[in-house]
Design brief:
Length: 149
């Protein structure tokens, strides 16, 4: 029973925190940068699209906080890469995890009969797949790597 309450609490917390970072809220948060854009660029950002030449603020509005940030420092400048991932569970199959015992009384002999039935559980593995990688140079998007599926 405790597992169910803990799972419910974690799911509720995830919904609460996940609901805070929507595109409209990020537009409101960075309203100065967003209002300076032309209508086509604003529409792309509302659709969660990014393009070469966007500033980090515009990428943040469109995609949110990156899952990872990599920094590359050279003698001349510092470049940054933002990585966004997909998180999901992969089904691996079912395995036998034990037995369930059943006891019943035979109506003719009035003897207790015990039977065992195998119990199976589904097995899942957490997966993290890179979705998009955005490279910044001189404060602007220089290139975008995206997995096509």
């Amino acid at each position: 029973m405790f597992k169910i309450y803990r799972l419910f609490a974690l799911a509720s917390l995830a919904l609460l925190l996940g609901g805070c970072s929507t595109i409209p809220r990020r537009i409101e948060e960075k309203s100065t940068a967003f209002s300076a854009l032309d209508a086509d660029t604003q529409n792309n950002i509302r659709l969660g699209r990014v393009d070469v030449g966007y500033s980090p603020d515009l990428v943040y509005i469109a995609l949110g906080t990156p899952d990872e940030r990599l920094t590359q420092t050279t003698k001349t400048d510092t470049n940054e890469t933002w990585i966004y991932n997909n998180y999901h569970q992969e089904y691996l199959g079912r395995v036998q995890t034990g037995y369930r015992q059943y006891t019943y009384i035979d109506p003719k002999t009035r003897q207790a009969i015990v039977t065992y039935e195998p119990v199976y559980s589904s097995i899942y593995r957490d997966r993290v797949d890179e979705r998009i990688r955005i490279h910044f140079r001189a404060g602007q998007v220089a290139s975008i790597e995206q997995v096509k599926r």
